[in-house]
Amino acid sequence: MNQRWTLRAIALLSTLLSAALLPEGNAAAQRQPFSPLPAPTELAQAEMQPSPDSLFVAYPPTKYETVADRIFFIGTANPDDPVAINGQVIENRSDDGHFAPTLPLEMGENTFTLVQGDQSVTLNITRSSIEPPMPEGVGFAEGSLMPAENIARLPGELICLSAIAPPNAQVSATLGNNTLTLTPQTSVDLPPNSAVLTDQTTPVALSATEYAGCIMPAEPGDLGSPSFTIKAQGQTVTAEAPGQVSILSPTDIQVAEVTADFGIARTGPATDYSRITPLPAGTRAAITGRDSEWLRLDYGGWIKESETQVSSAPVPPASIIRGISTDQKGDWTEVVFPLQTPVPIEIKQDTQSLTLTLHNTTPQTDTIYFSNDPVVERMDFNSVLPNSAEYTFHFKKPQQWGYKLRYEGTSLILSLKHAPKTNSLKGTTILIDPGHGSNADLGSRGPTGYPEKDVALIVSKLLRDELKSRGATVVMTREGDDDLYPDDRVETIEATEPTLALSLHYNALPDAGDALGTSGVGSFWYHPQAHDLASFLHNYLIEELGRESYGVYWNNLALTRPTVAPSVLLELGFMINPEEFEWITDEKSQQKLAKTLAQGVEKWLEGQ
Predict the structure, then answer these.
(1) What is the phi/psi pair of residue 439, to 5°?
(2) Does CATH number 2.60.40 belong to domain 151-247?
(3) Which of 155, 266, 405, 521 is deepest in the core (most CB within 10 A)?
């Protein structure tokens, strides 16, 4: 399906997730509460404190748009009287009167009225299509002509053009001196990553038809914008794509140097593409392609141009490598890779090793010496033709405790963290990140409107006290109702370099999820060094507390990405589940949860 509309669908569906589970996008987007409502005003805050006997709907808002085919209604009312929605009595309410029914949505406008006694609440929900709007008669779907942004490629690379149009049409495109016939493609799209959380990953059949074709220009130059023509029903319509196409000169070499502390490298030219190893400041690589604000570097990764400085060069950056040295500095082993220029890198981990790949590097390595080290058993070297070098570190213990990367001049420094000197909580530093915070970032909300940020802070403080009583030093990212971006929290983790980091949250679901039937503890990790901790704590909590299991997930989240320590994010229950919400807000249950979690951390450390 046309990528621009795929991204639109992903963007719409992503707004329906808990902010804790927003892996990408700008910092402001990741601060938003579970529902797509704007930051609450004083009036909205007052409305979130319903009287015990009043009918109250916490979600969705009274006017709301979604692309989901169903939606749940989270709210509360007097437990002694029935509540009806469009005349149907809501079943399965909690003891306190909370409810969370799910109802289907028709395409377009849907009206729902909830009634209890003489009270009523009316909601207007609009279901929109993920497909682009088609024009009346003959024409192209709005915004479907690709490329939508300016792109640049090297000679000999495929340039693919596409458009969405009615079925059974004749569609062609002209770019430079090339005219090609575009053929219909399979109209199937993939759900967004969030679909994994609701087990709704089946590919989606689309009614719109995408027409596509590719050319392979051989000469450098500006080809301009492609012109598209559609013939159908005896009519001919032409239109021009907004993006222009350029073919780069392979001898006019442009080099990008990373200026951000760490440039975010990705598998493609947009934030929805997967992250790969960040590139330390100073990294230099030749540019082999452009997509709008994105640069493709010669080793294959894409990076935003704003995170780099671009200049011309007579030759692409490359290096040889020979001797490697090591040194122990405090709780870290530093491995120094001397290079002629800072090259792009990649890190791959498994349970007992870490592999560093140096791209654009020709090895002249014949001798390796690794001194007796508390972390590394041995280091292996492997040349990867034509121009990469791999160094694999095998650890003495399966559990890794973290790593750091930086360039000093042209030398790459890989720092490997030592294990704690103790296998108890005494002498350790545990970082706790209470999720969300402030009226600008409520997090998910329960049936009464009670926000995730408040209960996350309560349980975090209880956990802090439990850990301190067992001898740990505890660092909190917030002690009050603080307005923090995800990057602020990550910076605290990186500056603290704790023994381990825990981010505490409470969960929600996308609109198409089952709020009434979904509950339990979820655990999220990103780096392999955090997997064992995430699994252990998840299993310990469900076994000791008798809670349901939501599962252990690999997830690209800001609070799971720090490399300096095992970092996990725990979703301790579902705010939107009526029964679980009562457990979440019960003071004795909060105390037991904090004590059990502290015990789990202690037992995990004892096993290392």
Answers:
(1) -70, -15
(2) yes
(3) 521
Contact predicate 528/518, CB 8 Å: no
Reply yes or no: is the peptide bond before residue 61 cis, omega within 30 of 0.
no
- CATH superfamily assigned to domain 429-606: Zn-dependent exopeptidases (3.40.630.40)
Q: Mapping DSSP to helix (H, G, I), strand (E, B) and coil, where does residue 605 land?
A: helix
Helix (H, G, I), strand (E, B) or coil at 26: coil
Residue-wise DSSP of 83-112: -EETTEEPP---TT-EE--EEE--SEEEEE
pLDDT at 204: 83
Strands in 178-184's sheet, in edge-to-edge order, are 159-165, 209-215, 178-184, 170-175, 227-232, 235-240
Looking at residue 48, its pLDDT comes to 53
Please compute the mean of the pLDDT values over residues 110-127 and round it to a whole number. Answer: 97
Q: Average pLDDT of 203-221?
A: 91
Rounded Cα distance, 580 and 576, in Å: 8
- Cα distances (angstroms) measured from residue 491 to each of 128, 197, 485, 487, 558: 39, 28, 10, 6, 11
pLDDT digits (tens, 9 = 90+) for 218-273: 999 999 999 999 999 899 999 999 999 999 999 999 999 999 999 999 999 999 99
Q: What six digits make up the tokens of 514?
A: 């089952």
C-alpha separations of 596 from 182, 254, 463, 467, 546 in Å = 61, 56, 9, 11, 11
pLDDT tens per residue across span 512-557: 999 999 999 999 999 999 999 999 999 999 999 999 999 999 999 9
Maximum Cα–Cα distance across the chain? 85
Q: Hey, do 151-247 and 332-417 end up sharing a CATH topology, with the first three levels equal?
A: yes
pLDDT value for 13: 39
Q: pLDDT digit string (tens) for 325-373?
A: 999 999 999 999 999 999 999 999 998 999 999 999 999 988 888 778 8
Calculate what percentage of the chain has a pLDDT beyond 90. 83
Report angle CA 125, 128, 131 to the nearest 5 degrees: 170
- Separation in Å, CA 231 to CA 205, 213, 225, 283, 519: 25, 17, 20, 50, 53
Q: How far apart, in whole angstroms, are the C-alpha atoms of residue 380 and residue 394?
A: 8
Average pLDDT score over residue span 383-405: 95
Of 127, 218, 125, the residue nearest 178 (C-alpha): 218
Per-domain residue ranges for the chain?
Answer: 151-247, 254-289+307-312, 332-417, 429-606
Does the pLDDT value for residue 21 go beyond 60? no
Q: How far apart are CA 181 and CA 163, in angstroms?
A: 12
Distance CA 277, CA 222 (A): 33
Architecture of the 332-417 domain: Sandwich (2.60)
Crossing angle for the helix pair 452-469 and 587-606, to the nearest 10 degrees: 50
Residue 49: pLDDT band (50, 70, 90) is low
Using a 10 angstrom Cβ sphere, with 0-12 exposed, 13-18 middle and 19 or more buried, the burial of residue 264 is middle
Q: Which helix (H) or strand (E) holds 432?
A: strand 429-434
